[in-house]
Amino acid sequence: MKLYAGIDLHSSNCYIGIIDEQLEKVFGKRVKNYLPMIIDCLAPYKKDLQGVVVESTYNWYWLVDGLQEQGYTVHLANPAAIKQYEGIKYSDDKWDALWLAHLLKLGILPQGYIYPKETRPTRDMLRRRMLFVRHRTADILSFQSMIARNTGGRISVNNIKKLTEANLGKFFSDPDLLFMAQRYLSIIGLLSQQIKMIEKQAMNKIGLTQRFKWLCTINGVGKILAMVIMMEVGDIGRFKKVGNYCSYCRCVKSERISNGKKKGVGNKKNGNKYLSWAYVEAANFCIRYNPQAEKFYQRKKAKSNGIVAIKALSNKLARASYYMMRDQVPFDSQMLFA
Questions:
Q1: Which helix (H) or strand (E) segment is 285 a member of?
Q2: Which residues contact 115 (CB under 8 A, 6 or more apart)?
Q3: d(CA 112, CA 324)
Q4: How far apart are CA 314 and CA 278, in angstroms?
Q5: 133 half-sphere exposure, CB direction, 13 A CA radius
Q6: Are residues 330 and 255 in the same domain?
Q7: Under a CB-based contact definition with an 8 Å cutoff, are residues 293 and 219 in contact?
Q8: What is the pLDDT of residue 298?
Q9: pLDDT of residue 209
Q10: Residue 115, in any domain of the structure
Q11: CA distance 60 to 160
């Protein structure tokens, strides 16, 4: 008898539901998020289980890895793509778990990508780097605002990074302002140091593979940005078409248009926010070093605004990088901006 299991995962507990081929409930129980306890619940049905579906929540790593190590066939459900039965009046964790197993039995389960456990820590480390970069940028902008508010002058980001506590006196005479400026420099310096340490650790740990080295041929894309893209993409073969990849990178509009009129929007958060950030960064650097990219940006900016223009350029770079990674070819500016 073939069985199918679904696990509705929460922060501290989960509900395990198992159904048979007739879609009848065989087992159901709520247990704590404790792997040995979950393994014990599934053990009597292991030989008949065709698969275990785990909902893709923020804390799925430990459960999916543990089940795979025990020999279970695990599927990661994409909750954003799962369509609920519209006629249902009531649902709970029990119903959700059984519904996941139901979708698996019918072969219509929208699945997420289970990123390889071996390289996942490096990817997450680069994600933390991006968080530190945002914090440093926020502190720099706040420090700029403090200088402008108290002196009426303006100082560039690069000059702020070069400042030392010894030359802060030319900006502030008040001891409290000087004290706060020193704290800003201390935080910015600490974050810069930690960012460099993370970059060094990531490069020493894995480095760019041959498949992704072509990304460095894009004007303005260095090793770190290329590595961020590499770690977030994983296997480029999981994207059948370039449109699927651009949608995953959040480079595609989430709108429903009928007769030229906007009728609604989809889920704007579908996709990978880290790849979205990476390609926006790549676009900002590309317009500095590639004249054709700058012309494209200026043309789009004249028709709309700078934000829309950057997103349009990031979409073009995402499309180009898809073919570069898939076909192992260098960046061709003439072809992209023809």
A1: helix 273-289
A2: 123, 234
A3: 24
A4: 9
A5: 16
A6: yes
A7: yes
A8: 95
A9: 82
A10: no
A11: 41
Clarify whether residues 241 and 275 are in a common domain. Answer: yes
Asked if 214 and 201 sit in the same domain, the reply is no
Task: Report DSSP letters for 51-78, one per residue.
Answer: EEEEE--TT-HHHHHHHHHTT--EEEE-
What residue numbers bound the domain in which 124 lies? Answer: 120-205
State how many domains the chain has: 3
231 and 329: one domain? yes
Taking alpha carbons only, the member of 286, 303, 326, 289 closest to residue 315 is 286
pLDDT digits (tens, 9 = 90+) for 28-66: 999 999 999 999 999 999 999 999 999 888 999 999 999
Q: How far apart are CA 306 and CA 275, in angstroms?
A: 20
Contacts made by residues 204-209, CB under 8 angstroms, sequence distance 24+: 205/122, 206/119, 206/122, 206/231
In a domain, 111, yes or no: no
Verify that 187 and 253 share a domain, yes or no: no
pLDDT of the residue at 163: 86
Residue 251 DSSP SS3? coil
Structure tokens at 14: 């989960």
Task: Express each pLDDT in 149-186 by its tens digit.
Answer: 888 888 888 888 888 888 888 888 888 999 999 999 99
Is the domain of 287 the same as that of 308? Answer: yes
268-298 pLDDT, tens digit per residue, is 667 899 999 999 999 999 999 999 999 999 9
Q: Which of 170, 205, 240 is the last residue of a domain?
A: 205
- Kind of pairing between the strands at 49-55 and 3-9: parallel
Task: Give how far the C-alpha of residue 152 lies from the chain's centroid of Cα atoms, to the nearest Å.
Answer: 39
- Residues 90 and 13 reside in one and the same domain: yes
Query: Is 133 strand, coil or helix?
Result: helix
Is residue 17 predicted with pLDDT exceeding 80? yes
